[in-house]
Inverse folding.
């Protein structure tokens, strides 16, 4: 491992993950900061980056590249969306410059796609993980692939020959949080009951009539005697099961196409269970490693321009 040559950041709504990388893209140091952009005032992102993030690594003067919601109207500056279809080269050409105590500082643009019901779909941050996953192995940049990035706003992405051609967002994680805190399904219990999760998967059916299926999370308790503390696990299974059943169809994906799961290990395990229950082949890859690879690949292309 060499000395630090780049400061790379994935700066989201709730937290900031940062790494210093050497000249080969290997991690030298890693830290997380409680600096999600939703907690920051206008103009604060730039100040906190210079006063906290750079000094934490002794990275003043190093080139820096950032992705995520830091490039939104909540963050440092708006990095305009790149439109699908888009690949690594197009994203690198759209990096947005920012002023910092750095030799070179850029923010990765978000991506916009044709959505459903006539509205566009958007992402910020997931595109960097996707491009990093593609960059890690050249063979991934040929053919057609379906990628699922679980999360608060899960992304289902269709990739053809290394370019993101379309994606659909499912607000599954946020819906789970809202229902668990502000509805008749609210509960402080942990979502760690595998049997209840599997029952939720079964109740999801093909993802249709979700509003009706959701009520079973209450009726199974008050009318069927199921333990109330199993409700979060059941609700998680129902929502993830409905997403896995229905969302790929919005991309024109056939039920037997294999799926790549890219993201947080715990969430990917839940999605893997849902996919396995439907007989869908799948592989899981670490989202953090992909984010680092994507930031480094975009830096190399962007800095060379």
């Amino acid at each position: 491992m060499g000395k630090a040559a780049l400061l790379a950041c994935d700066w989201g709504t709730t937290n900031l993950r940062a790494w210093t990388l050497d000249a080969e893209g290997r991690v030298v140091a890693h830290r997380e900061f409680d600096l999600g952009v939703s907690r920051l005032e206008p103009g604060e992102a730039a100040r906190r980056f210079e006063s906290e993030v750079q000094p934490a690594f002794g990275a003043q003067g190093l080139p820096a590249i950032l992705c995520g919601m830091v490039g939104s109207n909540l963050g440092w500056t708006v990095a305009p969306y790149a439109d699908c279809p888009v690949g690594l080269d197009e994203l690198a050409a759209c990096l947005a410059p920012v002023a910092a105590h750095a030799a070179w500082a850029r923010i990765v643009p978000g991506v916009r796609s044709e959505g459903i019901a006539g509205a566009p779909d958007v992402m910020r941050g997931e595109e960097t993980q996707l491009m990093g996953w593609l960059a890690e192995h050249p063979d991934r940049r040929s053919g057609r692939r379906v990628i699922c990035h679980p999360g608060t706003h899960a992304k289902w992405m269709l990739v053809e020959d290394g370019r993101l051609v379309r994606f659909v967002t499912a607000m599954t994680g946020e819906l789970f949080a809202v229902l668990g805190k502000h509805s008749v399904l609210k509960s402080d219990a942990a979502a760690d009951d595998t049997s209840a999760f599997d029952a939720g998967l079964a109740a999801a059916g093909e993802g249709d009539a979700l509003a009706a299926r959701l009520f079973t999370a209450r009726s199974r308790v008050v009318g069927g005697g199921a333990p109330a503390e199993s409700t979060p696990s059941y609700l998680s299974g129902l929502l993830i099961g409905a997403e896995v059943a229905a969302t790929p169809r919005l991309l024109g994906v056939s039920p037997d196409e294999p799926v790549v799961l890219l993201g947080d290990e715990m969430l990917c395990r839940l999605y893997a269970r849902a996919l396995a229950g439907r007989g869908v082949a799948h592989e899981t890859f670490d989202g953090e490693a992909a984010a680092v690879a994507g930031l480094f690949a975009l830096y190399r292309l962007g800095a060379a321009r």
Notes: The first strand starts at residue 6 and ends at 11. The chain has a mean pLDDT of 96. The radius of gyration is 20 Å.
